[in-house]
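notes to self, project folder thing:

trying the whole complex as one job this time. last attempt i did each chain seperately and stitching them together was a nightmare. two parts in total, labels are on each line so i dont mix them up again. if this works i'll redo the older ones the same way
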Amino acid sequence: GEDVEQSLFLSVREGDSSVINCTYTDSSSTYLYWYKQEPGAGLQLLTYIFSNMDMKQDQRLTVLLNKKDKHLSLRIADTQTGDSAIYFCAESLRDSGGYQKVTFGTGTKLQVIP
Amino acid sequence: KAGVTQTPRYLIKTRGQQVTLSCSPISGHRSVSWYQQTPGQGLQFLFEYFSETQRNKGNFPGRFSGRQFSNSRSEMNVSTLELGDSALYLCASSLEGGAATNYGYTFGSGTRLTVV
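result (full assembly):
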């Protein structure tokens, strides 16, 4: 497909783990990113993974990359109410002009129930 | 280190008018990209400027234009505004452009444009 796809909504209870999934478009993507957007704010880079990695852990965040299926996931351990936000995955790949271009997913709204 | 600054934060315009939005990137960043965010379409890429040159452009009509100055500050302009242009316009800066590094983009807080 041509779009980076994410499910629109996820609801979890505080203290549980959250898993946000993403299907990206191009297996030659160099970097894949997860961004977080809180209400009224821009996007904040949470973490990234380089395309030759399968997994990356950063404190409560774990990123898994399946290049064969072009699937990216973000796991948030011990989810807190402050994690409530919209999460975007994004891929960076080289376009026909030779420049890197970033394409964002549709965003997943995470709701954390106290 | 100052972040990405977008001005104004909020704007209300009438159909048919034009508008100019401003973005000051992080000091030292040479690339500025613009995105339109709407509930229905998500984040749509408008264009990217690098060292005062437009390096990449999304699928938007010619009413949407931009420029970048020698100090890397960027402006985008929308002429003949339509109701559908109501959106959050986000600016993102990066060192080299395209964010093909582990640094990714740094986003501003956006300009909320409402067209009435």
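what i see at first glance: The radius of gyration of chain B is 13 Å.
need to look closer tmrw
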